[in-house]
């Protein structure tokens, strides 16, 4: 059975989940406003949504069993990709609306899973991007541009203190997703971030140099720098 989480029970729910060896990764939230979603992020949840059969959106905060994390000293850049880095420019928070549109279109391509950023969540993320009620939580986008000034890759995520968490992204040309991630990692390191939270384990993240943390260890690291 999924745990029900409310604004005043976030830490209590986390303590319960970490003590339960049979827990689920998802919870059910009874409301969705900017303050609540920002606090969920602050406590280590990823905000996700599903749509019920009657079309009603439901916020289902996710606390992974394991978290994929990149420590910047472990960043791996292949020789082939390294040669192409100078052909692109990375920006942060330069074109939020375009990035969201591209992500939605990318994840609706044939054979890809339907985009999980429901319109209700889009609205909340946009509000948090413009003005977050928690100064330690900010929704960001990263944009990758080629030499012709075309947006060829990007992602949306959020900062919690000294940690950046990725949510979703897109790429339009071969290898531009890898380039965007490498340049993002280098940018985050230069800005003094402690580490990069990549969420769920995926082969391309491991090839980048990421490793897996158990939830408890991840939360301990997050709470030290949030």
Task: Tell me what the structure shows.
This protein folds into 2 domains: 3-59, no CATH class; 66-213, Aminopeptidase, CATH 3.40.630. 34% of the residues lie in helices and 26% in strands. It has helices spanning 10-19, 34-42, 79-82, 96-106, 119-130, 176-190, 203-207, 215-225; strands at residues 3-5, 27-29, 49-51, 57-59, 66-70, 89-92, 137-145, 151-160, 163-171, 195-199, 211-214. The chain is globular, with a radius of gyration of 17 Å. It starts with a strand and ends with a helix. The model has no long low-confidence stretch (mean pLDDT 94). By secondary structure, the chain is of the alpha+beta class. Strands 6-7-8-9-10-5-11 form a 7-stranded mixed beta sheet, with helices on both faces. It has a two-stranded parallel sheet with strand order 1-2. Strands 3-4 form a two-stranded antiparallel sheet.
Radius of gyration from CA coordinates? 17 Å
Report the strand count. 11
| Count of individual domains | 2
Find the structural class using helix and strand composition: alpha+beta
Under CATH, the topology of the largest domain can be stated as: Aminopeptidase
Q: What's the name of the CATH homologous superfamily of the largest domain? A: Leucyl/phenylalanyl-tRNA-protein transferase, C-terminal domain
Strand order of the largest sheet: 6-7-8-9-10-5-11
In helices, the fraction of residues equals 25-40%
Shape: globular
Q: So, CATH architecture of the largest domain?
A: 3-Layer(aba) Sandwich
Question: Number of helical segments?
Answer: 8
Series of secondary-structure elements, N-terminal to C-terminal:
EHEHEEEHEHHEEEHEHEH
Query: CATH class of the largest domain, please?
Result: Alpha Beta
């Amino acid at each position: 059975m999924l745990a029900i989480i409310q604004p005043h029970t976030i830490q209590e729910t986390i303590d319960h989940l970490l003590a339960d060896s049979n827990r689920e990764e998802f919870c059910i939230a009874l409301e969705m406003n900017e303050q609540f979603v920002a606090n969920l992020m602050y406590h280590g949840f990823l905000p996700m949504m599903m749509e019920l059969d009657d079309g009603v959106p439901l916020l289902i905060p996710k606390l992974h069993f394991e978290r994929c994390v990149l420590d910047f000293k472990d960043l791996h850049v292949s020789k082939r990709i390294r040669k192409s880095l100078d052909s692109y420019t990375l920006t942060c928070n330069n074109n939020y609306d375009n990035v969201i549109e591209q992500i939605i279109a990318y994840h609706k391509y044939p054979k890809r899973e339907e985009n999980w950023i429901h319109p209700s969540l889009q609205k909340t993320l946009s509000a948090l991007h413009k003005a977050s009620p928690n100064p330690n939580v900010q929704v960001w986008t990263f944009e990758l541009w080629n030499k012709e000034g075309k947006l060829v890759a990007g992602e949306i995520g959020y900062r919690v203190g000294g940690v950046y968490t990725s949510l979703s992204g897109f790429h339009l040309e071969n290898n531009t997703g890898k380039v965007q991630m490498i340049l993002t990692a280098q940018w985050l390191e230069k800005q003094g971030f402690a580490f990069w939270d990549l969420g769920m384990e995926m082969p391309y993240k491991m090839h980048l140099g990421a490793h897996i943390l158990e939830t408890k260890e991840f939360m301990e690291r997050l709470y030290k720098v949030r």
